[in-house]
Amino acid sequence: MTDITQALAEIVGEGYVSDQPEEAYFYARDPGLMPAHEPDYVVVPKTAEEIQKVVRLANRDKIPIVPMGAGMALTGLVIPLKGGIVIDMKRMTGILAINEKARLVIVEGGISQGLLKAYLEKNYPKLRHSIPDSPATATIAANVMIHGQGRLSQQYGFNSDMVAGLEVVLPSGEICKIGSCSISPDWFSKGAPMPDLSGLFLGWFGATGIITKVALKLYPKKKMRDVEIFITDMEEIVPDIVHELTYTEMVEDITVFAQPLPMIFRDNHHITIFFTGDTDTELEFKRKMVWDALDRFIKSKDGGFMGVPPVMKPTLLDSPQRSVTRFADVKKGGGFEYSGPIILVEKYPECSRKIRELAEKYDLGYSGMARIIGRGHCMMYGFAFTFNRADPDMMERTRKALHEVSEYALEAGGVFWKPTVNEQKMALDKMDPNTRNLMGMIKKNIDPNGIMNPGNWEVN
Amino acid sequence: MKYEEIVHRCFRCGYCKLTSDYTDFNCPAYRKFRFETYSPGGRMWLIRAWLNNEIKNSERFQDILFSCATCANCVEHCVFVFSEDLVNIFIAAREEMVNKGIIPPAVRDYLKNIRINGNPYKEPQDERGKWADGTSVETYKDQDYLFYVGCVGSYDERAKKIARVVGNLLLEAGISIGILGDKEKCDGNEVRALGEAGLFQFLAEENIAYFKELGVKRIITLDPHAFNAFKNDYPGLGGEFEVYHYTQILAPLIKSKKIPLAEYKAKITFHDPCYLGRHNGEYDAPRKILGAIPGVEMVEMEQNRENAFCCGGGGGNFFTDILGGGEDSPNRIRVQGALDTGAQIIAVACPQCAKMMEDAIKSEELDDRLEVLDVAEIVSRALS
Q1: Whole-angstrom distance, CA of residue A175 vs CA of residue A108
Q2: How far is A322 from chain B (nearest CA, A)?
Q3: Taking CB atoms and an 8 Å cutoff, what residues of chain B touch A20?
Q4: Does domain B259-382 sit in CATH 3.40.50.10700?
């Protein structure tokens, strides 16, 4: 046992530190396509105080640190590019406080989306959070850290917009409260009316600190939920359809998917419209509003509602949608990765054309999937390609296709979501120089030894 | 390796380690060790790495592979089409390790004891039927059913008590049973789960031949592990028998009042054995029995039926103890789950589960608050 291993064992307990090849192998990778880099150590702490001690040790010895949730970003954000210590957060699963009337919850930094969902369903059936379609193991903290989106993003924005406070361990080891909780016992705002310091951490992928607690806004959960699918073969009108739908303010979530397989989906764009209600009357009213809003497209014969088969409904209403994960095995190969730029909804047609062009060029299976964020303010367009992990050629073709997506996304005015290290460099290169310098100043001042997830958001 | 063509298809999404409603992590090895490597996805990725010579067969790799309790939670909750084969893949990897002779010492000793002594306890074969001393259970001749007890029921003191109760109950209900006594041999379920395919085949073929020689058509098992082997693995080797777990025989007898029950006031929670529940889909028979006892209040643990949390004894861990020990050991977690229900009794239907739960109650110092009883023992207390 090395001195560092011994020191880590004294902090987290011998059973929760590893410097063994098995953990080095596993934690060197994520399910995506980024190259492997092995950590020197993996620890699984139980408390913020343990993390604090690990960070202080790392800062003293200038050892890189990478916090990890479920590692489902697929873009290599938890791959320890420069070795060091991976901190697996998933023993920190506490639900620390809930305020039912204010619709707020405070959770520890390793709790999964699934655990929070199950807890709310059992104990607070009128409350919900904005659950993403990543696997249920994905953590709340990592999701807000990457500015994830979820079921409620059409109504309330990015999941990170729903943060109501943070506790973070700074690179120096201090535990720091962010938001109203810094001066009040109540966690209800991540910034306003004070300076919003959450921006020093959200979107930084752990390069400025480790989130150990998150206060999250919760929202009303209606008793019933239903889904309609509007189909069109005209990609140009998808933005107009989305515009009409968001205007109704009747809709919970809007996603759009287009994919060649199974055959039933080929050549069409499926605007999937979720809505909720406490009564049949409410649900049917919203359904009518949705139908009325899209009536002109039906009359012009540009699209129509697809009868959603009963067998398909549970799949669509599943939350998170497990079918999204199943996309990884379309090629019987356990892999998919997507580049998901955040971009204006009006760019949907060209994104749609681009994914078809790239799929054809590189002979890949694909799914184009968009999630509307805000009332049509923007969307995440996922250029998703499935690959066979046992087929190096297919993996390389997927890498190339995704690289072209990255170049295209920037040209089209998009901004990378959970960017790979290469995309981060591309973004920094294109960024306004003063903004880039500001990022550099923040990083240098907050993490002078450069120990926090090094390689990410590095401004040279 | 068998299933090699599937191993790379794991996306390591982690659904496999949860319950269906995501209430909690439900993989016993992951709950204990908390490194991703000990989860089903971790095993899949490491097996692939091992097959590709990217990692070696180290002591830790062996621990990772052999700490799997084969509880099939992953099979139940994996979202991919190959989910059915997950436990089979882990067993196939163990088989490769056994074939190369590089396995944990505890596994080696278990297999050696089965090979040499015919049981894991190193007890003499002629004492195998002693559990039945003092009962009216007779040696199998031409009875309707062979009552197969298994290694644990034959040699472990606690399990022997359960075997006696079950044997007596069946007889009192008029079921015609006979046992093999000192001719009974290990069913091999754990031998197979630990990757000794050759020894398993040997045991199974010997058992099948002997059962056939005796004219056995129907088998009642005490132990869900034997039930699983007879029901699912023996047919492929020519052993087609009608196989029942004893709860499947008792349930209709109780329903038809052939076993009359008096009031027995108790709050009871039932712990599903993995080899009865997830592996064989039998969740109802034990509950029907307990639910039919006047005065019994049944309460479910949060993780029940297909979401039941394994006691940690499956896959050979009952004997090898690779998964055991410490506050986060699965049996201690499970006992806490039982305590949360307010039950006074944890009902089990597996002698291995009974032992695992009793050990956990001692470790958690809950002796004065919880009691572990087999379903048959509860019925026995309620006999009118």
Answers
A1: 14
A2: 7
A3: 58, 60
A4: yes
